[in-house]
Amino acid sequence: EQGRPKAPVPTDRPAHVRRVLAIASGKGGVGKSTVAVNLACALSARGLSVGILDADVYGPSLPTMLGLSGKPGYEDGAMVPHEAHGLKAMSVGLLTQATDAMVWRGPMASQAITQMLTQTRWGTSEAPLDVLVVDLPPGTGDVQLTLIQKTPLDGVVIVSTPQEVALADARRAHTLFEKVGVPTLGLIENMSGDIFGRGGARAEAERLGVAFLGELPLDASLREGGDAGRPTTLAVPEGVVARCFAAVAARV
Ligand code: ADP
Question: For residues 13 and 19, what is the distance between their CA atoms, to the nearest angstrom?
Answer without folding.
Answer: 10
